[in-house]
Task: structure prediction
Amino acid sequence: METPKTEMPPLLLPPEIQATFERSNTFLRRKYDGVAPSAEQLVIFYLSGVEAHEIVANLERQVLQVSGKTPPDQDEHLLQTYLDMEKDAELNP
Result:
């Protein structure tokens, strides 16, 4: 049984981000004899594996780095962000 496909609006990415997925596609096509997901499919694949707490923790780390501050240990920060978001969800259903 085939799963029906949902139409999605196009996702416009900045050129440097699009280039990252295109490089990945090119590498995979070479490595696997021309068989690889498209750059667009790789974006969906990548994003489908990311949890909300990972997005928040990574953004916070980038802000700290850009502002010249040393971010906390990545594993500890990721866990704390997860716990904070779980608590927030309980308090704000």
In short: The two ends are 36 Å apart (CA to CA). Residues 52-91 form one domain.
